[in-house]
Design a protein that fits this description.
alpha+beta, OB fold (Dihydrolipoamide Acetyltransferase, E2P), de novo design (two linked rop proteins), 2 domains, 3-stranded antiparallel β-sheet, about 20% strand
Length: about 250
């Protein structure tokens, strides 16, 4: 079974329990006997961000299974190169650990997580943007995506214009329908990225100025969706997110 290691918990002097995420089984927990011994066959394998080919003995109607063998498939060793990379990577892990149910197949979310970790490892300047895109991909795959291609009130296509986003109503509001100045304006660039993530299409290369706008807007949108639908944010530092542009039609 292919699986991404999320966390490892020591049990006693020599054993441990691993929380893992796999495409076919979603989030599972498995005990690894004698894994903490210096000459264990699991030595160096059960670290967060490692992708394993693991042999699991599944126990029916049990939350804890048993890992009998493991082989390293991929190690994201460069995620620890900078504080920004490792912080973003651990937040991806936390989303999978805290916001996904046990034992539910999630091949698309698994693929999104692996892609995000690979992009973090390869890029040195887009850490937060990659994280926001992964978090929104999680929201899409769990039914929390916003409708941004058309106005949620009148149904009129948005085109290439900015729009106000109403989290509670579930999407974009056009200029003819928007009456509440407290509802924030979001740029066309951010709305287009959100639509591409909803449609599972790739994000084009963005210039630096546009990236900064999208990073700022996506941070706040994602935070508000998590809090509205799930009651909490992935990490407490996100609570420092500032509001979006509430005056004008920024692009």
């Amino acid at each position: 079974m292919e699986a991404l290691i999320l966390k490892r918990y020591p049990v006693g002097e020599h054993d441990c329990i691993c929380s893992m995420f796999s495409p076919d089984h979603g989030k599972i927990r498995a005990a690894a006997r004698h894994a903490m011994k210096p000459r264990s066959r699991f030595s160096g394998l059960l670290e967060p961000f490692n992708v394993l080919d693991a042999e699991i003995q599944f126990r029916e109607n049990r939350d804890l299974h048993r890992m009998t063998e493991a082989r390293l498939m991929r190690r994201f060793s460069h995620l620890i190169d900078t504080l920004e990379k490792v912080s973003a990577a651990f937040e991806i892990i936390e989303v999978l650990e805290r916001f996904t149910p046990d034992s539910e197949p999630a091949p698309d979310l698994y693929a999104a997580a692996i892609t995000a970790l690979a992009c973090l490892e390869a890029n040195s300047s887009h850490d937060e943007l990659i994280l926001r895109f992964f978090e929104y991909a999680y929201l899409v795959q769990n039914g929390y995506a916003l409708r941004v291609d058309a106005c949620i009130r009148c149904g009129k296509a948005r085109g290439q214009k900015p729009a106000r986003i109403h989290i509670e109503e579930g999407g974009a509001i056009c200029s003819q329908c928007r009456q509440d100045p407290a509802v924030p304006v979001v740029s066309h660039a951010t709305l287009e990225c959100m639509q591409r993530l909803r449609d599972r299409r790739s994000i084009p290369i963005l210039d630096a100025g546009v990236q900064e706008i999208i990073r700022h807007e996506m941070r706040t949108i994602v935070l508000h969706i998590f809090e509205f639908h799930l009651g909490m944010a992935p990490l407490t530092w996100q609570k420092n997110a500032t509001g979006l542009n509430r005056s004008g039609d920024g692009s």
